[in-house]
Amino acid sequence: MCVPDVREQTLVAVKPDGVQRRLVGQIIRRFEQRGFKLVGLKMLQVSEDLLSQHYCALRKKPFYPSLLHYMTSGPVVVMVWEGHNVVQTSRVMVGHTNPAEAQAGTVRGDFSFHVSRNVVHASDSLEGAQREIQLWFQGKELLNWDCCDQSITCEV
Ligand code: IDP
Ligand code: MG
Question: Which of 69, 70, 92, 113 has the highest local Cβ count within 10 Å?
């Protein structure tokens, strides 16, 4: 029996439009259903300072000011999910950045139609996930706990 790296973590956030539209539960359900483990969760009104660090690679994009406005328009729900290959699998579950190109069955493909209101964020790489988790969470806010079904969902 081989035990894969189940400790990989990623950052997922329900953006302000997703919170306003009461999609938080449906998004959490998809990650639980997939078998991933929730290790951190909080709701917050994001500061421009945090967002500018989070989206530092996009600072020069023409849509950057409207992105900041969108992301500070209301609370977000941010989470850390853990599991085998969770970074890549989360990106697939979330779907293409532009919902018009996102497959049905993905969060963006099911709940949105425009890139400026695409409901959810997920880290795009292992390095990005580590950076974003440290940015959004303090170490003590992440829980190291055992799922009672770990031997079924995590050992393959
Ligand atoms: P991602 O969220 O799929 O990783 P990124 O390219 O990292 O996509 O862009 C970050 C966020 O910036 C997107 O999720 C979306 O909210 C916003 N964004 C990206 N491209 C555009 C655009 O062309 N117009 C408006 N907003 C955009
Ligand atoms: Mg991105």
Answer: 70
